[in-house]
Amino acid sequence: MPLPFTPSQPLTLGVELELQIVDRRTLNLTRGGSDLLAALGKREHRGEIKPEITESMIEIATDIASNTGDLTRDLASIHAVLLPAARALNLGLSGGGAHPFQKWSERRITNAPRYRRVSELYGYLAKQFTVFGQHVHVGCPDGDAAVRLAQALGRYAPHLIALSASSPFLQGSDTAFDSARLNAVNAFPLSGTMPPVPSWKEFESYFETMQSYGIVESMKDFYWDIRPKPEFGTVEVRVCDTPLTPSWAVALAGYVQALAAWLLEEARPFDALGLARVYAYNRFQACRFGLHATLIDPETRSAVDLQADLLATLERLAPYAEKLGSNVELARLAEAARERRNDSARIRDQHERSGALADVMRWQCEQWSADVNLLAHT
To answer: pLDDT tens digits for 251-265?
Structure first.
């Protein structure tokens, strides 16, 4: 079956964020998804609020945006209706890529056909998938551009992993990873990266072959880090942990948009096969060490410091950020890179101060609800 690509306005943005739903008394995850969505009723807001695979999570999504200012407006609108509804149910909402002490066996699969099918196919992995990520969509003019962009962005996936990392604790223990969330994604057989195909026609052929095997039904069955979304006309970047604050999610989306502007405009050749060879190693380094990671540059075949590579890239993107109106957001990312300080570092610092993971979760809920940079736009 053909897989048509629906063109969209290049460089438009959309953000999806998976949020933790916690009991404000115990600070553990709780089965509040359906109750929270029901409590919202028909309250008007921008964007969308949806169920996720388990009842302990929800997903919020912006409308199609032209710039980071539009994203901030949408997230502020969602924030304004979601938080009061959660408080009325004695629920807390939090960012972070993973809850630090929840037990996957206690999770309940959301009662929806797709989620039931995922649970039947993947067994316990479906409940272990109670981890929380940020997805960024960026518009593409055609399928060939989407294939090229999806592959080229893979070179910069470690930057996004390191900047967004917010899942250092699992099952009550420090994992020694900055982003432990992506290890849960790795367990799925269709995770990783898309094949290094040269065109949309070749990608369609690959998809049709996988469909003929009975391995996939739709693009949703691919859990790739970066994938085309032909029905939206976008490339979807899926490597980021959900940040502790909505405004940091906006900054990360600004980086994706600026990267896409540069990569689509220059369309310079890159070694897709070389990138595929080093991708898993670079991804591991970013997950494990965050902003202290060491990467392999597939072009020079030499080791590079992630921090230095990121700062050089941000400098290269400055003209694009200026044109797109995201220079303030990219400056925030550069400051974090210079300090080698991401959300995982902040979570560990908070744990060292409080000594209790429940207190860390209380603090995380406060970070989400009292995001100064977001509230300034309400």
So the answer is: 999 999 999 999 999
* Alpha carbons 19 and 134: distance in angstroms, whole number: 9
- The model's pLDDT over 10-38, given as tens digits with 9 standing for 90+, comes to 999 999 999 999 999 999 999 999 999 99
Asked whether residue 295 is domain-assigned, the answer is: yes
pTM listed for this prediction: 0.97
307 to each of 191, 263, 342, how far by Cα in Å?
26, 20, 12
Instruction: Tell me whether residue 291 is in a domain.
Output: yes
Closest C-alpha to 156, from 324, 241, 283: 283
CATH number at residue 89: 3.30.590.20
Q: Which domain holds residue 230?
A: 13-372
How many independent structural domains does the chain possess? 1
Q: Is the pLDDT of residue 377 over 80?
A: no
Percent of the chain with pLDDT over 70: 99
Give the residue ranges of DSSP H helices in the chain: 33-40, 68-88, 113-122, 124-128, 143-152, 157-164, 181-186, 200-212, 246-266, 272-289, 306-316, 318-324, 327-339, 343-354, 357-369, 372-375
Report if residue 176 sits inside a domain: yes
Average pLDDT, the chain: 95
Instruction: Give kind and range of the element (H or E) at residue 199.
Output: none
What kind and span of H or E run contains 4? none
